[in-house]
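User: For my dataset I need records formatted as: sequence, then structure tokens, nothing else. Please produce one.
Assistant:
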Amino acid sequence: MNRRVLVVDDSEVTRAILARTLRGAGFEVMEARDGAEGAMTALREQPAVVVTDLEMPMMDGFPLLRLLKADPVSAHIPVLILTSHGEAASRYWGLRTGADAYLTKDHRPQQLIATVSRLVEEAAAAPQPAETPFGPAPPGLPGAELGPIEVLARVARHLDASLLRATVINTLLERGMAANDFHDAAREALTTVGQVVDALFLAVAVAEPDAAMIQIVLEEPIRQSDVEEMGRRLVESLGLLPSVPVEMRVSGERGDASLDPSRIVRVPLSVRDATGFLAVMPRDPQEFATSTYALVEALAGHLALVLDNARLSQRLHELSTLDGLTRQLNHRVIYDRLTDEMERARRYKFPLSVILCDFDHFKEINDTHGHLAGDAVLREGAAVLRRCLRATDLLGRYGGEEFLAVLPQVDLDAACMAAERLRTGLEDYPVRLPSGAEVRITASFGVATRDELAGPMTGDLLVSLADRRLYEAKAAGRNRVRP
């Protein structure tokens, strides 16, 4: 076991006292007069522990600590800092900067021996040097080649790297926290990461118990077939059950560039109550391993924070706007959106139509198969209705088994055609019940358009007209559309 201890202090008396105490406990002691000499010795000799003062000439303890903890050659070496009672802020900052322990300068000899012994044992048990997915971290410059100027230059480089990391983290948090939902936050965060990581492809994937979300950002125009294949591989990596829905979005241009799936690097993300990872496909895997992977690892924790915040904000928004069962707009919100669309249609003289839908014989489904089956019919039926509508159309649960669709810039004829698509979509879609049985559902539809109203053109009157036509469709035998 390595039992060499490096003592760094500008006071000869202090060094002598520390060295005598440590040698008496069986440690081999090396000495350095300031931080620069301590850095040269630590990088060259690889001691088991570094014991350092904070205030020293040439280079004090903080730059020494940052250098040792940032450099792959010495990051594994524990550092014990010595402080006075009046240096509480220094103790705090030293530990935040990476020190493994601290003692006040009036410590008892046994405290020093016990602390150094513990750090030696921990260092012996810890893996070294640091590992990356590409193998051991690259070695630094040989310690024998380092002089005071080279040490200070090395400190400056590490400080620049720390400043870069802090700037990127700040930008990532600022842009990600301002986003409205998971995908917006993920896209903003990945765009920020892409500015410091030379990659072809970046993605985040998060799997919750009942849903999964994937956001992909293309840094180069990638072939559509390769994008689809990478999406499939990301879904597989989440280990989802077949029934778990996945919402995947891709930003970036499609083109002719190809992707090699074997080059993708995954970094785990510690997201709350879910599993997730950051996926990166570097242009140059070797360069990524030597210069970028550590930065990506440092960003991963902050990226997870951004995604957690976005998921929480999205969930709160959904609780206030969506129906809990069908995941469509709730009654209040669909009415509010209808009012907004009525005003927009009045101002710009656009057509506006609504479709009121009611599932046929829904009570019989509940009575025959149970309420869980009824919930499955509502949930799956609502999903069918949503798929059959345009992205600009609005769909909300009006109440019970009734749904209201708002179709901006659609006249009566086009609305009737849309309602017919909804009717056939439901009729052709078998719903699998929790029991394993399948049922086919139908629905009746009432359609109305704003131009049919006489007098005040309000949302209430428009829905009332669609409601009357819905009952006409039911009276005529159900499973039909009435304008």
